[in-house]
Design goal:
Length: 70
């Protein structure tokens, strides 16, 4: 199952740290997002609509924080 891991910008390479992991599988409808904090994991299963809302929210947050892409 493919997955992408997102670490905070302050993470030191080689040390365990809090992160967000997003995984998916072609044969399973949905995307699973797992937040790992202090070694404890909590996850949610997102459908296409949920992923689209998350993408829009992340773009709004990015643009509000760093300015819109040109």
């Amino acid at each position: 199952m493919p997955a992408e891991k997102f670490y905070p910008s302050t993470a030191v390479e080689g040390q365990p740290s809090d992160h967000l992991e997003v995984s998916w599988h072609r044969d399973y409808p949905g995307v699973f997002a797992t937040l790992i904090i202090g070694g404890a994991a909590s996850g949610i299963d997102l459908d296409r609509s949920g992923i689209n809302r998350m993408i829009r929210a992340l773009r709004r947050a990015r643009d509000a924080t760093y300015g819109a892409d040109e």
